[in-house]
Structure formats: C-alpha cells, structure tokens
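Pyridoxine/pyridoxamine 5'-phosphate oxidase (Comamonas aquatica), 215 aa
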Amino acid sequence: MSQISAHIADLRKSYERAELNEDASHAAPLQQFDQWLQEAVNAQVNEPNAMTVATVGSDLRPSTRVVLIKGYDERGIVWYTNYGSRKGQELGGNPFAALQFHWVELERVVRIEGRVERVSAEESDAYFHSRPLDSRIGAWASPQSQVISGRSVLVANAAKYGAQFLLNPPRPPHWGGFRLVPDRWEFWQGRKSRLHDRLRYELHDGQWLRERLAP
C-alpha cells in the first residue's frame, strides 16, 4: 500500500467560508446560478466555466467528462462538442444528462439535471465562427472518441484540413451545440461539522419548488 493510500482516509477539511439559506437565496435557480458563477469568476477560481457532464449509454453504464459552458439563459445550459463522440452518441439514445460545477475555492457545488436537445444550426454556426482558427481546424481533425493509431493521425488531419480550408473552415456537420433544459437544480455550500447547506429546486407545473435537503 502506498503512503498516500494509507493516509487518504485522514484527509479532511473544515468548510467555513459561507452559508446558503432560503432567505438569502433567489426564488429562481437561474438567478442563483448566475450569482454564484459571477462570484466564481470574480474570485478568479481556476476555470470557473468547467463543468462535468454525465450521460448514460444504451448499456446503462454512466460516463462523465469535463467540458466548458458556453452560454446559459432561460432556455438552458449550452456546450459544444462533436456529435459523434461518446457523449453525443449517448445523448442521441438517452437525451437526459446531469451537469456539475465544483468551485473548490468557494466550497460550492451546483448540480443540474434535465433533458438535452441540440441547439439550432444558426447558434452552432455563430459560435463555431467565433472560435480561434486552430480550434476550428481541430474540430475537423479529431474523430473524437474513436481509436487512432497515434498523435500523428491528428497532426496529419490538421495539416490536411488546414490546407483545404485555409482561413475559413466551415462548421463540420458532426459538430455543434447541446442545450440541457433543467428540471432540477441543487446548490451545495460547504459548512462546518459536515452540516452542509443544500437547496434543491424542482420544476412543478411550470413553477420552481425550493426545498432544503439534509447533507
């Protein structure tokens, strides 16, 4: 047994930075999320826009990966990816997913669940053309989630598509945005003695019901 393995159970932290209560929280979860995300950005936490996306395949095995949020509003949470990737294929068969933000420095977690849909082609086009050139070429060069023989495949593909498209690569037909339409949110604030604050918002008949959960 390694030294770290022997002592990992003893790693502990006391969460004492803030609190989350019903009186100080927003009635609508999107406003609460907007406040917390802005505070994470202002606090200069490491990659505040990074979120874990969890999907479930046809074999009922869950899988997770980290992506970057690219937009949010009353319609939902948006990110972009290769539709042929594992997550894209799993969402094609089971259009429900869960998202999680973990802002360690603020001792906060946000969990979001709901149905996932593709954004419009116009939205995907607009975002794609706002990306740096190398990222646009990379969307063509990488057969995401497929087995390749080595990194040389990616380098060769990037050179091929760079020569083909020069400065104006179009959006690949296999690449675009997903939007998760939330029906459940949870906001977690670490507290002392493991008596953490958890507020859950669930959508019922078009209205958000806010409830406190035991930690």
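The helical segments are 3-7, 29-42, 86-93, 121-128, 133-141, 151-165. The chain has a mean pLDDT of 95. ok done for today
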